[in-house]
Amino acid sequence: MEPEIKIDQFNYILPDEKIAKYPSEQRDHSRILIFKNKTISDSKFLNLPELLPSSSLMIFNNTKVVPARLIFKKATGAHIEIFCLEPHLPSEYNKSFSSIGSCSWIAVIGNIKRWKEGLIYFDTCGNATLDNIELRAELIGIKDDKSIVTFTWSGDYTFSQIMDLCGKVPIPPYLRRDSQECDIERYQTTYAKEKGSVAAPTAGLHFTKQILDKIEELGVEKEEVCLHVGAGTFIPVKTSYIKDHKMHAEPFSVSLSLLKKIRDAHTNGKWIISVGTTSVRTLESLYYLGIQCLELGLPGDVNQWEPYNTSLKPSVRESLNALIKWMESEKRETLERRTEIIIVPGFEFKLCNILITNFHQPQSTLLLLISAFVGDEWRNIYKYALNNNFRFLSYGDSSILFGREPHINVD
Question: CATH number for the domain including 161?
Fold first, then answer.
């Protein structure tokens, strides 16, 4: 049953000067708030490795932000921005990025009223390389209130190369500035691999190779999932009750070997640490995919309210075993699905014990997730951060939130 939660209960005053408009000079020179045993303190992010339990499994999201904003112009000079959200044809990310000559994407169009019909041409801004590409865009349809755009171009360039040549980094709208040279590197984690996100998993922006190496030296096992972050992460909640808010779907993938490690870590009482809310959404979705296997014989996608409406409540081990068994029977080494999961107060976390995350906007679904994880303590955490001059949102400082302690599960 959908929870009766009023979004205005998750509001706080965020002065504009508290929002970090640019990244810190060095990634790991940010600050980190520590919430443990209902006690709040702070440190430097450089000290993160010492804060982690040695017997733990740490999950990172290795998605890579793509330069998804493409600026075109008409013969009249009017500019039209095409913000690519996800591939339409071919629908697989890797196939779309490797397409040569043409592909179609679902997109949000800026200034769409000026785009009546036909083709528009990319504004080259003096880039001689682009003169030979002849990149064009055609509006071919509408899907779920989004536009479908077909791109065509000349030469043996892949669409990934086209984006790199023509696109701009889609930094968050609340930064209220255009993307700059520094964003190309800094609005990207150091471990980003799989292209597909239009927003960064910002909890990971603080990590450097030195910190990652130190974490490994201290006996923490590092693993990766991939969830491509959609533009829906920036959509504000406009409804009075969260039950009326429509969550966006995001594609994710998890390997069979990692599924087994997650199951074993949970069974053996290891701490499972999630780097970012996107990793949490991926981890917690796995339990419900296992339930689908138990109920239906195969996993589909995870819908928004599935955790609150399912009547079957198996143990975590039983659920993950069902998902693992299905993958093995299908001879699949990687699970690829989509999740709309919304995590709000009342949600029971199955797999995440520790969450590393930045500070989120008032009245946002991400703040609701934080409240679900730490309860009403979120107010004290955010009050502490504001009073002690922490930097907020995507380029801001970090926090490490300790949830329930793991225990050995015999079932």
Answer: 2.40.10.240
Residues spanned by the domain of 99: 69-168
What pLDDT digit, counting tens, does each position of 53-111 carry? 988 999 999 999 999 999 887 777 778 889 999 999 999 999 999 999 999 999 998 77
Instruction: Please spell the DSSP secondary structure of 288-312, one letter per residue.
Output: HHHHHHHHHSS--PBPTTHHHH---
d(CA 86, CA 159): 13
Residue 129 sits in the same domain as residue 16: no
Q: What is the pTM of this model?
A: 0.94
Looking at the 3D structure of the chain, how many domains does it have?
Answer: 2
d(CA 192, CA 205) in angstroms, rounded, equals 10
CA dist 387 and 248 (Å) reads 33
189 residue type, one letter? T
pLDDT digits (tens, 9 = 90+) for 17-29: 999 999 999 999 9
Q: Count Cα atoms within 13 angstroms, Cβ side, for 192.
A: 25
Give the torsion through C-alpha atoms of 351, 355, 361, 363, to 10 deg: 40
